[in-house]
Amino acid sequence: MNSIQTKPFTVFVEGNIGSGKTTFLEHFRQFEDITLLTEPVEEWRNLKGWNLLDLMYKDPAKWAMTFQSYVSLTMLDMHRRPTVTPVKLIERSLFSARYCFVEHMNRSGTLHPAQFAVLDEWFRFIQHNIPIEADLIVYLKTTPSIVHERIKKRARSEEQCVPLSYIEELHKLHEDWLIHRVHAECPAPVLVLDADLDLSQITDEYKKSEHQILRKAVNVVMNSPNKLSPKKPIHTSPIKIVPHMRVL
Ligand SMILES: Nc1ncnc2c1ncn2[C@@H]1O[C@H](COP(=O)(O)OP(=O)(O)OP(=O)(O)O)[C@@H](O)[C@H]1O
Ligand SMILES: Nc1nc(=O)c2ncn([C@H]3C[C@H](O)[C@@H](CO)O3)c2[nH]1
C-alpha cells in the first residue's frame, strides 16, 4: 500500500557564500525520489530586467530592503513548493536569510532599524503561520579565507568586491545559529560537514550525509512500488549531529 506522503523530509543546505551548497545538491542528483531546490539567484539577478543582487552589492544602504524583500518572497515560494518526492533538499532558507544576512545588515547599520523591524515582523509572521521548518540542516562548515578564494575564482560579477571581512562576519553568524544554537526557533538537528575539503575529497564528506537523507526516502518509498535505488551504497559511518539544545 502506498504511504500517504503529507510532508517530505525537508533538508536545509546551509553555509557561507561559496561553501559548496550548489555542489552538494548536485551530488544528490544521482538519486531518485529527491527534489532539489537551488537558491533562486537568477531571479535575484533579473527581476523584470533589474539585477537586484548587483544593486544590493553596489549600494547596500539604498537597496538592502528591496533586495531582502524579494529574497523573502522567492525563498517562501521555495519552502511552499509542492513536492511529490519523500525528500526535499533546499539550498538555504528563510532562516539563513534572517539569522545571517538580515542580522548582519542590522548590526552593520546597512538597514535602518525601522526597515529591520519590518523584515523581522514578516519573518515572525511567516514562521508562526506557514509550516517552513526543516527536519534536518546540513551545515557546510568552512573557513572564511578558503571560501573567499573560491568566490574570487568563480568570479560572479556581483561578488567581485565582497571583502573577506564580510565573509568572516557571515561565518560567525552561521556558527552562532548552527553550532552555538542561539536561535531556539529553528530546532532541527544539524549535520556538520567539513566543506573546506577540496573537490577531490569532498565527495566522501558529502556521502556522510547520505544515510541521514536517503534512509528517510527509503522508509517512505519502501511502501510504494518505485523503490529508491541509490546507485551508491548508503554509508552508515558515524556523523556529527549538533543537537538543538547544546549542553555547554
Ligand atoms: N569542496 C570544494 N573545493 C573547491 N572548490 C569548490 C568546492 N565546492 C565548491 N567549489 C567551487 O566553489 C565555487 C562555489 O561553489 P558553489 O556554487 O557550490 O557554492 P555555493 O555555496 O552554492 O555558493 P553561493 O552561496 O554563492 O550560492 C564554485 O566555483 C565551485 O566549483
Ligand atoms: N544580502 C543577502 N541576503 C540574503 O538573504 C542572501 N542570500 C544569498 N545572498 C547572496 C550571497 C551570494 O552573493 C549570492 C548567492 O547566495 O546571494 C544573500 N545576500
From TrEMBL:
Residues 12-211 form the Deoxynucleoside kinase domain. Keywords: ATP-binding, Nucleotide-binding. The keyword Nucleotide-binding applies. It holds the Pfam family dNK. GO terms for cellular component: mitochondrion. The keyword ATP-binding applies. ATP binds at residues 15-23, 150-154. The active site is at residue 91. Belongs to the DCK/DGK family. This is Deoxynucleoside kinase domain-containing protein. The lineage of its organism: Eukaryota, Metazoa, Ecdysozoa, Arthropoda, Hexapoda.
